[in-house]
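Worked example 3. Consider a protein that binds zinc ion.
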Amino acid sequence: MRTAQQTDRLGQDLRDYAEECIRTELDAGWSFRFDRARRRVGACEYRSQTISVSRYALPIASPEELRQTVLHEVAHAQAGREAGHGRAWVRAARRLGYTGGRTSALDMAAVYAPWVGTCPAGHVHYRYRRPTRPTSCGVCSGVFNPRRLIRWSRREPEMPRVA
Ligand SMILES: [Zn+2]
Ligand SMILES: [Zn+2]
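Given these inputs, the predicted complex is written out as structure tokens:
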């Protein structure tokens, strides 16, 4: 993880980038902010016309991953709520220079989820809440398989101090 100072600098740079992107690509009325989500990196909020990025992504993402997140969300704003990750969104995203997929490659859960589980084959899984019933590994088997049970343990994820 980055130091607090590096994270601050990265956050400032990202805000500059996002605000410039919003100014040139979206109608007046859209704005950028940071949020405190721990499960996803970026969001596009249509009601408030806000593009946001989690402060918790700053210590763990590369500058390019963060810029790509902004492009992903600006494409949502351009394509409209109904588009989802459909064709209109894909077209907007490509035009903006977004090179990623429909979901972020940045795995927030791998860093911040308190529950980590492993199946007998070694596949690793993450949960934000204590798993309440036996779960088997979805990578090993598409249906519940008692021989592919995930063993869960709790950890204390290192949480960066965010402003
Ligand atoms: Zn999306
Ligand atoms: Zn497995």
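Take a moment to read the result before moving on. Strands lie at 31-35, 42-45, 50-54, 115-118, 124-127, 151-154. The helical segments are 4-25, 63-79, 87-96, 108-112.
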